[in-house]
């Protein structure tokens, strides 16, 4: 179950009032990228892709939070609303390696709950699509994967599994492109222009 397109757009608008920031533009562009890619693939629902893309970061409505916290808050919010397809994407979008992302005994409650959920979850096309689009969209438009990876690394640093995560994301891109019959970049508006923009990395506390 999911909200309507209008309902999801309204949820994002309300979230932006609660916690303004570039994550709102990013979420909108993730939705647009997901819709455009899904629209080129037979059997995928572009409206559903747009809605789950809009809502993938909805946990940030509670304020400036880290990756596990916003994932878990989004899951709880969508679960409360009865949006089971959105709650799933809230959980999976930040973890392309799935259960391999976690230590044997994660320290925080959120990470333990996320690991338990993901360990019993098999990604479907929409999970994979939002994992990809999360790395194609910035608040001011769209960019190639390499550009987004550098942007995230400048903000958060790199981890032991960073390169493996990049390689998995490239593999997802190639999987979708084989089904689209074209590059994902072909369906992202003005990507040639926005990829070349290089604003300073956003930091918590900035609007």
Briefly note the structural class of the backbone: mainly alpha
- The strand order across the widest sheet is 1-2
Number of DSSP helical runs? 10
**Helix and strand sequence:** HHHHHHHEEHHH
Mean pLDDT figure:
92
What is the approximate shape? globular
User: Rg to the nearest angstrom?
Assistant: 16 Å
List segments where confidence is low: pLDDT < 50 over at least 5 consecutive residues: none
- What is the count of β-strands? 2
For the report, how would you describe the main beta sheet?
2 strands, antiparallel
The proportion of residues forming helix, as a percent range, comes to 55-70%
Strand content: under 5%
Oligomeric status: single chain
Intertermini distance: 32 Å
Structural overview:
This protein has 207 residues and is an all-alpha fold. The protein is built from 10 helices and 2 strands; from the N terminus they run αααααααββααα. The protein has helices at residues 5-18, 23-38, 46-55, 67-81, 84-92, 109-119, 125-133, 145-156, 162-180, 191-194; strands spanning 137-138, 141-142. Strands 1-2 form a two-stranded antiparallel ribbon. β1 (137-138) and β2 (141-142) form a beta hairpin. α1 runs antiparallel to α2 (23-38), α2 runs antiparallel to α3 and α7 (125-133) packs across α9 (162-180). The longest helix has 19 residues, at 162-180. It is globular.
